[in-house]
Prior knowledge:
Strand order of the largest sheet: 1-2-3-8
Helix content: 55-70%
Number of strands: 8
Shape: globular
Radius of gyration: 30 Å
Distance between the termini: 59 Å
Oligomer: single chain
Amino acid sequence: MANSTPHAAPNKPSFWNDPQKRGILIQALVLAAIFAFFAYIFHNTLSNYAQRGISTGFGFLSNSAGFGISQTLIPYQESDSYWQVFKVGLLNTLLVAGLGIVTATILGFIVGVARLSKNWLLSTSAAVYIETFRNIPVLLQIVFLYAVLLKVLPAAKDSFSFADAVFLNKRGFYIPEPIPQQGFDWTIWAFVLAIVIVLALRWIARKVQEKTGQQWPIFWIGLALIIGAPLLTYFITGRPLDWSFPELKGFNFQGGVRVIPELVVLWVALSIYTAAFIAEIVRSGIQSVSHGQTEAASALGLKHNQTLKLVVIPQAMRVIIPQLTSQYLNLTKNTSLATAIAYPDLVAVFAGTTLNQSGQAIEIIFMTMLFYLTVSLLISLFMNWYNAKMALVER
């Protein structure tokens, strides 16, 4: 006989004995405590600013800076505003970071491959390089290189010169400056068009190889197009390019392009230091590829360099890219060490000189941190996109 008595509804737990509601309450209390903590710090800071007569906000960015900067990629004068100083420091920082990432990557790949060479001298030299530079703090390397450079280089009047067009001394590296004339745009457009044609040929060559197995000599064709097309256009349009040569006048050089020693030292030191880490990343990535892949490539008749280029490196890149991202981020953040040798990066001219003059510590440090955060996130986004593009797609 079936039991017709209805089941009694379970009693609801009290508010405190309900794990879900109790968790929400605790999280809300923690958030409120964090908010109250930062509100107290913010209020206390504003009170201290008011007691010392310091105004808050970003209005100071329109004030005149009143100091010079040794290297600027955009027009700048001492009468320009602090906002212009921010842009000058930002571009100088991006210049060092960009140059460093390119050279550290190239040098790191070369040393990483050399580390696995069967040549004892080559592999040992690569190992010594890696163990030496990655175990010395990069700040010491920067200061050491700068001290050596200042000792070795002569004064301006005794400069090292090459063909009376290139000069090197303690004040910098001077090279001729190209000055485009009317009609030079055609040469630039020819260069852009050559790159587009090479990319199109590369795409067609890949499709042909997938269908027929035939390989086109696209490298030499592309190289000839990229060099030959702009050069031919340059001569056809009457060589519309003048040069400004550096010349010693008085105590300093006039004309040409000056590369300050601080930029060279920072660039070289960061590249050497970061390349030591990238070399180990490359070595571990190559060793992660199964030896059977190399044997299969040899069985197909591929040469050693073809095996490395077509079989090993593409597979190793899938392991290397996430670690490369970390090294690129480290190099970008290490550019802030430029202050040690007075290179005019963002930290030196904005978070240093500008902060000392204006006293707007919170605003300036906030803007500087926001810049590094933005650049780091952009690098991460690009490398994550590249990593997804290189990932093996399963069908």
